Predict the structure of DUF402 domain-containing protein.
Amino acid sequence: MTAVDLILRKFDGSPHRQVTGQLLGEDAYGTWLATPRGSVVSYHYGDRPTGLTRADAVRLIPAEGWWMAMCLAEPDARDMYCDVTTPARWTGPAEITVIDLDIDLVRYRADGRVEVEDEDEFAEHRVSLGYPDEIVAGALQAVAELREALTQNEEPFADHYRKWLGQVGRS
């Protein structure tokens, strides 16, 4: 399988987070990357420069859309973690880059509740990093669409991702 670097930057171009996944394939929903448990994540914030993923996951980079999704295997309490981002761009032959826009949506496995996180960070960075109106509009539209899709258990967030998650760890 081909290794693909997934790079998240902040709006000012500074590095935020990076993980290398294995390209599983593409379908009508976008590009699917595997990040098996123990994959190295480089953080460029806080007090932890690197960490290891705690559960097998697949990451969906949509063909179009202001988000990306991480679909997590058990025993993680979350089954879905979505970052609101600018649309993804292939920035190299094996590199995808997005601008992280702070807001995240999480769906919890046990009760299916969906929570929106870091709206305060979005509001702060909207001013301090100078998000243009079109960036704000794209992010807020993504939040509304993701909340609806996750709450209503719409594809690819219902069962479709499981086919890809079942491939994590296979050679």
About this structure: Residues 3-160 form a domain with the FomD barrel-like fold fold (CATH 2.40.380.10). Helices lie at 119-128, 133-151, 160-165. The chain has a mean pLDDT of 92. The chain has one domain: 3-160.
